[in-house]
Amino acid sequence: MSATIRSFLWLESGAEEAARFYVSLFADGKIKSVETIAIPDGGVEVIEFSLLGAVFVLMGCKGGPAANEAFSISALCDDQARSIGFGEPWLMVGRELHVGG
Length: 101
Description:
globular; 33% strand; alpha+beta; 2,3-Dihydroxybiphenyl 1,2-Dioxygenase, domain 1; 4 strands; four-stranded mixed β-sheet
């Protein structure tokens, strides 16, 4: 038997926008699928994306929690030079984040 573990995050709205932001941070970031499911109270967005080989799923649906800082992504780098490449996009979140050591 084989199993795969993915990170899953439920948001009230903006799941596709959040996924596109995350994939913009990494050169190999990729949106793998976007699905919208119609339900009586609106719709559900389910977005699957990958970053550095790790798969994530974001679901946007009425009743979900508002986006907050409880979710984070950590990229472990072999050396300082590799982490410097992440510096510019991280400034897009509205405040400078610590990148590297």
